[in-house]
Structure formats: C-alpha cells, structure tokens
Amino acid sequence: MSFVEYRDTIKDGDTAIVFLGHESMFPVKVQHGGKTQTKYGVIRHSTDLIGKRYGSKVTCSKGGWVFILHPTPELWTMNLPHRTQILYSTDISLITMMLELKPGSIVCESGTGSGSLSHAIIRTVAPTGHLYTVEFHQQRAEKAEEEFQEHKVEHLVTVKNQDVCKNGFGVSNVADAVFLDIPSPWEAIGHAKSALKIEGGRICSFSPCIEQVQRTCLAMEEHGFTEINTLESLLRVYNVRTVSLQIPDLGKAAEDNSGTGFDSSNQSNPESLYGILQQGTAQFKSGVPLKEMVGHTGYLTFATKSLF
Ligand code: SAM
C-alpha cells in the first residue's frame, strides 16, 4: 500500500480506512494479530483484513459490517490526526489547479502542519516530482516524516525542521511552485522567490484574515510577482423547489405532429408535451441559492514569478 499507487489486497503494515458511513470512518494500521474495536464488534486483522481485497465488506464480531478502503489523500484529509488546523479538499483542489501542479513538479511548502495538503501535493507530483516541506515545530516535523514513511511516500518528500521566514526552504531555483500556510507569509515571500526556478513559477499563500492577505499582496508586489489574485472557495447551498411557470403559446406549429417528435398518442398524460401545452403551465425544479455562504476557511492569494 502506498498513497501514490493503488494495490488490490490488504497487507500487514498498510494504513487502511475503516468505513462505517460517510460521517463515520477512521484509519487503522493493519498488523498481524492486531484487533480494532468498532460499534459493530471487533475486526481481527489477521483473519478479517490481511489478504482481503480493498473495498471488501468485512463482518465484525457482533454481525454488523464495514467497508475497508484503500487510503487516498482525500480520505486521509478526512481522517488524519489533527496536530494543527488543516486544509480541506475544497481549498486543496483549487490550490492544485492554480499552482499548475502535475507529475514531475517540484514544490516547496511551509508549514507542514498535519500534512493534509502535503499528501495531496505528493500524490499529484509523483512519480518524478518532489515536495520540500518546512515546519519549525520539531515534533510536528518528526511526526510528518514518520507518516510519510508509513505511507510509503518518503522518496517523494523532504521535511526540514526550520523557520521558513529566517532560513527559507533550503533549496534555490528549483521549485515550480511554492505554497505558504503560516501566520506571517509576507516574511517568507523573498525566500519563496529564491526557491522558485529562475525562469519563474507560481506561488500561493493561505491566510484566514484579509489584513494578512493585504500585507502578503504588498510583499509579493515588492518582490516583483505579477498576476496577484486572491480567491475564496466556498460551497453555495441551493434550496431546490418545484415552481409552476407559464409556457409560451407555440400556436399551430406545436400542435402539428409533423417531424417534431411531438407524440399526440400520449394526449391523456399531463406530463407529455401535448399535455403541458394544453395546461398552459409546466412544473420546473428551481434552485434558489441561500444568501449566506458558510464555511470560510481562508483566502488563497496566487501570483506568478516571471523571468522578466
Ligand atoms: N497546511 C497544513 C495542513 O494542511 O495540514 C497546516 C499548516 S498549520 C495551519 C501551520 C503550520 O505552520 C504549523 O504547524 C506551524 O508550526 C507552522 N509554522 C508557522 N510559522 C512557521 C515558520 N515561520 N516556519 C516554519 N513553520 C511555521
């Protein structure tokens, strides 16, 4: 099992996701002789997991069942142990697209935090790219390194335990993209510029407050970054209801059966085109957006370092 390659069967040492429902899942480290308690009873790793196919339905000791899923960065984001605030898949997908990440990309990131974004970046840049991730909190840096090893992606990532604002990323002119999720990103913009390739690249900074965004934009401008854009990714909930709308009078053409697909044999069905035309109104599903868009996490400020 690796977070960057799919394997069919569950093996000793794998990290698997025990799925009880969309609102209830957790990661488990598969071990010979290991046991995991669920509300449906015990899962015995040696007999219930090892050798079984990922995606299998596993019956627990009390008769209830769960699915065992292959890990992905998205499932990891939903289930990882939180050591810090983390980035979620809505922001991560926008970051991946706007930083133009792809297999082979070299990326610098700080801070590593709980490694939520790191796992997604690593999966995207594999198999030939690399992530340099900088975290100044020693235990967080060590824990992230441990998890990258457990998830068999250690060859794709270098963790550095240092202050990115003072010491930068420890690499120069190699990165295609830089990502910052730290409280004072404006202090790291100069280091980000040095880490990016001479021919240029993309940068993104995540900040929860607009005041931080303003300072970061000024620093980006001072360092010659262009195309500075701040985006926020929010989910908008639509209230769907059925409404009656008048339909236009299509006159004789609509009643004329020739070559239109209009089926006059279905005249008794009020939902057929003929039936609708006769009633003069039709029922439509209409989506009304709720005014408030909840779920603010932060603003994503993107910019470009150009050669000129
Ligand atoms: N993006 C991460 C994720 O998705 O899991 C979460 C990052 S967390 C919000 C911010 C991290 O940045 C913390 O772990 C903190 O220790 C680290 N940090 C803050 N300032 C830093 C600095 N100057 N240099 C390196 N790391 C820093």
UniProtKB/TrEMBL annotation:
Keyword Transferase: yes
InterPro entries, per the entry: SAM-dependent_MTases_sf, TRM61_C, tRNA_MeTrfase_Gcd14
Coiled-coil stretches noted in the UniProt entry, renumbered to this chain: none
Keywords: Acetylation, Methyltransferase, Nucleus, S-adenosyl-L-methionine, Transferase, tRNA processing
Gene3D superfamilies, A to Z: 3.10.330.20, Vaccinia Virus protein VP39 (3.40.50.150)
GO molecular-function terms, A-Z: tRNA (adenine(58)-N1)-methyltransferase activity
Any Gene Ontology biological process: tRNA methylation
Catalytic activity: adenosine(58) in tRNA + S-adenosyl-L-methionine = N(1)-methyladenosine(58) in tRNA + S-adenosyl-L-homocysteine + H(+); an adenosine in mRNA + S-adenosyl-L-methionine = an N(1)-methyladenosine in mRNA + S-adenosyl-L-homocysteine + H(+)
Gene Ontology CC annotation, any one: nucleus
Enzyme class per UniProt: transferase
Compartment(s): Nucleus
Domain tRNA (adenine(58)-N(1))-methyltransferase catalytic subunit TRM61 C-terminal intervals: 64-305
Residues annotated as binding S-adenosyl-L-methionine: S114, G115, S116, L117, E135, D181
Chief subcellular location: nucleus
Top-rank taxon: Eukaryota
UniProt EC number: 2.1.1.220
Subunit and partners: Heterotetramer; composed of two copies of TRMT6 and two copies of TRMT61A.
Family: Belongs to the class I-like SAM-binding methyltransferase superfamily. TRM61 family.
Primary role: Catalytic subunit of tRNA (adenine-N(1)-)-methyltransferase, which catalyzes the formation of N(1)-methyladenine at position 58 (m1A58) in initiator methionyl-tRNA. Catalytic subunit of mRNA N(1)-methyltransferase complex, which mediates methylation of adenosine residues at the N(1) position of a small subset of mRNAs: N(1) methylation takes place in tRNA T-loop-like structures of mRNAs and is only present at low stoichiometries.
Protein name, UniProt field: tRNA (adenine(58)-N(1))-methyltransferase catalytic subunit TRMT61A
